[in-house]
Design brief:
The chain is built from five helices and 13 strands. With 290 residues, it is α+β, with helices and mostly antiparallel strands. The relative contact order is 0.24.
């Protein structure tokens, strides 16, 4: 799958959805500490797995170890490291947390500064102009049990609906590890198979097709891709997330059929890739179901 505005390296980094690619590349120099897996299953809040803090364990450096590549350019799917089998990494704040731990959101234009940060994820050749996109910030709960604030670029028409989704996820205690804009650095990075960034906009084609994906219109979001990988035959994306192919083992941050997480997107009319038949894309939600 090749982006319409990026080099082939973007395929390796951003691949994550069956018809769309996820966004979970991390810079190798950005260490993220992990916490040890808990032997007990996490409780459920309204059908969504909720945050259960665990004891601190040795650091896991997200993005530190590039994977050997498959002939198709993706990284090889390797066994899930023990510390990531029940992944609960704390969030590194890029934006200030919401005041008082309350849900808060903003919707604004894509400013020149935001456009610069987006880098190669948008170009004038993309199907929507910047004026048709919105920069959105929303509060979210981390796996560390704390309130955080993340950022997305989405279609202007979808922005109010997306705010309502994350308001509901916040109320349900659904944890999210990271939510930041994909950048050129992500596009050019080599696959490491351990990223978990929640993101929406990037201008590229659907896999194996010449048409634009829903992400290129700002009408798709990938949430917690490591906890909700794409699975198709021998392909797992992110490549170290094989432990999360087992969906009957309910861990925080997973989307479950009938759960509050899937319900939050269903309420705005968006469809879930976890309900697809030929493949499963558990991270992926989109306006038209593709």
């Amino acid at each position: 799958m090749r982006s319409l505005v990026t080099a082939a390296a973007a395929v390796v980094l951003l691949a994550g959805c069956s018809t769309t690619q996820g966004f979970y590349g991390e810079s190798p120099e950005s260490p993220t500490p992990t916490v040890a897996p808990s032997p007990a299953a996490a409780p459920s809040v309204g059908g969504a797995t909720s945050v259960v803090p665990s004891p601190v364990a040795p650091l896991w450096r997200v993005g530190a170890s590039p994977l050997p590549l498959r002939p198709d350019g993706f990284g090889q799917a390797l066994p899930t490291p023990t510390v990531l089998r029940d992944r609960r990494l704390p969030t590194l704040d890029l934006l200030s947390p919401p005041a008082g731990g309350r849900f808060a959101a903003t919707v604004g234009a894509v400013t020149p500064a935001i456009r610069t940060r987006m880098g190669q994820t948008w170009s004038p050749a993309c199907p929507v102009p910047l004026s048709a996109l919105r920069y959105v910030t929303v509060a979210f709960r981390g796996f560390d049990g704390k309130a955080h604030r993340g950022e997305l670029v989405v279609a202007a028409s979808a922005a109010p609906k997306i705010v309502s989704v994350f308001r509901n996820l916040y109320a349900a205690g659904f944890p999210i590890e990271e939510m930041r804009l994909p950048t050129t650095q992500d596009v050019l990075a080599k696959p490491t198979g351990d990223g978990n960034n929640t993101a929406a906009y990037v201008c590229r084609a659907a896999r194996g097709q010449t048409r634009f994906s829903q992400h290129a219109y700002g009408l798709a979001i990938d949430v917690n891709p490591y906890d909700n990988p794409e699975v198709k035959r021998d392909l797992v994306l992110p490549e170290l997330a094989s432990a999360y192919k087992e969906r009957s083992w309910h861990r925080p941050g997973m989307f479950l059929s009938g759960g509050a997480g899937v319900g939050a997107f269903s309420a705005i009319g968006w469809a879930w890739g976890g309900a697809w038949h030929s493949s499963k894309d558990y991270m992926h939600f989109s306006a038209d179901g593709s």
